[in-house]
Predict the 3D structure of the following.
Amino acid sequence: MNMIVIDLEWNQSSTGTEPETAVMPFEIIEIGAVKYGEGGKLVSEFSELVKPRVYRKLHNYTSKLVHLQMEELEKGDTFENVSRRFFEWCGSDPVFVTWGPGDINVLQQNLKYFGLPLLSEGPVAYIDAQKLFMLTCEEDRKTRRNLEYAVDHFGIEKDIPFHRAFSDAYYTALVLKKVLEKDRDVIKFVSYDITYPPSDKAHEISMIFPTYEKWISRVFKDRDAAFKDRDSLSTRCYLCGKKAKRKIRWFSMGDRKYYCLGECEEHGLLKGKIIMHPCTSPEGVFLVKTLRLVNEKEAAVVEKKFNKVREYRKNNTAGPAVKKSPKSSSGPVPEDKGD
């Protein structure tokens, strides 16, 4: 297994009028990476510029951030050639490491646009070093820091400039080494890029992490079909497998997010969260569900949201018609269409 710490720089449309923006909003202009060996040793490096073919004018933000000019990029090679050399350099079965969730998504979109093999036809597992830093070094497990903050946190020498693909990959690798020295087990918190969801039920993702469970569904034709699937609304405790007693049924605040609260007799309160994602190929929706044990304070937040929805519905009964909930007692409240 090769652990590849990768960073991409990309350009975007300056006008937003090109038809390509719908399928490839960001075009890769630089690939930088380091090969991460045993004990955090950096054993090899990769760095190449990519000649743009879609967005031929550098967006002002891109130019200022990465300090590149179009004249420099014109000297680069095509994405097809650069990506081929990159994957040859990666070797077999690479595990990608990034700083944040964006790079794998952009890489998948560029591979698709240029007709090249995808990293995976479904979700791609990768290591998000930014998330691991948050879990290891931040009291607030929702605060994501930028790369330079993490470098400063560990007192790593800043010997090359930030905001170029290779330098950011290099710093990410150094931060990852420090994080794993502090807590080796945090590597278990694998992330998934869901640019392309599972193709069928057999390829759905179901993972149990140290503190939560995640399920990524296949594509359903619509919301109703998704919630008829028994796995969608299941709230079994991920530690013991027992069905949790329902305290608050699944409900939505109208933002494609659904919540519930249950209780495991053995392990306590269990918060469920579903995010519904639209999909265009095939057309439909897919779900990402997480189940997490929570304390009384966290459970109270879910209850507050539920009461807010209930109060809104109570005060807006004379408003536009709203679909009734599915007959199943565990069915989700349909999305609000109000303010």
Q: What stands out?
A: The longest strand covers residues 268-280. The longest helix spans residues 296-315.
